[in-house]
Amino acid sequence: MSDAPRPSNFLADIVEADLRAGRNGGRVVTRFPPEPNGFLHIGHAKSILLNFGLARAYGGHTHLRFDDTNPVTEETEYVEAIQADVRWLGCEWGGHLYYASDFFERMYACAERLVRDGKAYVDSQTQDRIREQRGSFERPGVNSPFRDRLAAESLDLLHRMRAGELPDGAAVLRARIDMAHPNVLMRDPLLYRIRHASHHRTGDRWCIYPMYDFAHPLEDAFEGVTHSICTLEFESNRELYDWVLDNLGPWDPRPRQYEFARLSLGYTVLSKRKLLHLVNERRVSGWDDPRMPTIAGMRRRGVTPEALRDFADLIGVAKNNSVVDIGKLEFAIRGDLERRTPRALAVLNPLRLVVESWPADRTEELDVPWWPAEPARGGSRKVPFGRELLIERDDFSEEPPKDWKRLAPGREVRLAGGYVVRCEGVERDASGAITAVRATHDPASRGEGERRKVSGTIHWVHATRSVPAEVRLYDRLFAVEQPDAEPDFLQALNPDSLVLAKGARVEPALADAAPGTRWQFLRQGYFFVDPVDSLPGAPAFNRTITLKDTWAARTAVKPEARRARREPAPAGGAEGAGPGASRKARAELRAEA
Fold it and tell me: Would you name the residues annotated as active-site residues?
């Protein structure tokens, strides 16, 4: 077995039990089988890490297989993007790269075998008619009038389907199982359909394509997969998976399907159809928009593969579906970036600070460590300090609240890495708006003077020697926890998911920040130099995440609201009572927790 850490979950228990029993000749082969019809998202990342991690831990290997059985929706662009995403997560498939289209000829031979054995037939009805005859959970299905077609006739029609003699929808190949089966999927399911469309790999060689439930088990068997791990929505498909293998075997090893709970993440949609809709409607800039839950989007936002692995370990592998709190993902991202990002100075909403006690013609180059709490860790850089500086507009209040620890009239703060300053007054424009803060500094407050206690520390940059930068403040794409539950998920979009910090300035050392590097803007958040839009001398910074969870504060329930909830409701109900009211209470309770 491998020296990789052993996972602790029910799937690992299954693998270990198989190894102890000597099943599959001691082999462990898993697979990740995406359909190349879109970019991968964070839910796929969980599956990738699970499949590759299991195989690595038990000395096996994992196949990357593209389930390219639908030429209408699949593109080479998606194939390349998927491979890049899997590699970025640190997973390698070696020589085990496969496509469903690699096996089209073998799959077709299996289809002919089922027809000859009387286990499949060609149905000439429309798919709408077939769907109607299938019945429901409460109502058994009805046999197709073509169910008793002779094998020779079905075989001839199947040949004609392959030869392109029949138009789309004229016929399908169906398994002959049981139209009264309690599992609706087992009621003579479709195995092949006609689709006259050019395939991204096979071109026009085929005009019939296998259905997923037929292709998937065969691909596993052809490749020698031992543990076929799917999400829970495929649990009812397992019976058909086994039927296909049992009627077309024997196989060594014989694949087995196991299911785990897919990732459902709060404030997110993970439906490829909906993500494609966001792209096509131009609600985002593309599949790699940093607000998207795609792996490409998260990578461009500055999330690391290590953070996603930490998140996967944090949530574990479950047997039951549930919505995962997005705060767990954000916790993993913050924990990862805290360890790897040097601290830099940037002001996003500038307000002039005039240090009147500082000579107008003097600039001092302050030596400021990149890691203030660990000065020896990563060196330092020179930061210019002069008479005119810029501070964050939110760091000054003319009438501060009770616990204010920033700059206010008559109060002192330390400028991070610099001097202590005291507010002496303000400057205003003709409308009365504050345009600058006037201050004095304490020349002895650096070096040994840094022991001096003040109410707080704020960040700053030099007014003229700082560098203008494009700073994009990204936030959650949706404003509600479960956008999929909304009548129109587009109406749940967060209007503030992207805010451009106009007038943002960064310290001179960041002027040539390399694309793909990560920084913590002191007191602001974690930022990533955009690898696409940044230019030398004109960096573009994407906010990966804030330093703290600002959403918790925004959705916190006030004490009076908590008291009101504890009081009994008036008899006969209250205004606004009903299903929506109880749902709101639960949401508030979650936010409070």
Answer: 35, 262, 272
